[in-house]
Amino acid sequence: MVAIVRACRTSAVVTGRFAQVANIAELEVMLSNGSNSTSMNNVDYATALTIAWLSNTSVRASAADVPAFLRSMFEALEGLVGAKPVAAEAGQGAHEPAVSVRKSLASRDHIVSMIDGKPYRTLKRHLAVNGLTPDGYRQRYGLKADYPMTAPSYSEARSSMAKSLGLGRKKADAVPVAKPVRKQRKRADPA
What we know:
Arc Repressor Mutant, subunit A; two-stranded antiparallel ribbon
């Protein structure tokens, strides 16, 4: 809900029931916490979103567009309310891995994702796209805490490259760099 309001990107003062709202941040707080006296219903949410949309200075809307937008906001909110129990039930079930743990780690060149069964050198970006963290991934599929997120050959290649560049060394371990020798200028005799 708040994400839809943020998309409006408005800072104008709104009117009506939301007259106390001075900017979009206050509207977001009202929508996330409910109104002061009672919780807001979908009509109130749709009205607030429509007001925020109209307050946006980049919106060029005619009077005929407002009822259609209000109706579409209300229908979207009704769809969200109806979809919540189904999504909650689907999220409670166990996730079936696409491959076994053994097959996931079978190759030194890649790790096979348990989400989609495709090979990756590193899983971090793939997990981020799917809305997971490495710890969340491990927890979802019941993996040990030391389950790798990068392929062994990729880790070794990165490590050798970093060592060849001298990264990770302390100053005492670093290769000393020879300082250039400055030539002494001959001074002119004042005599």
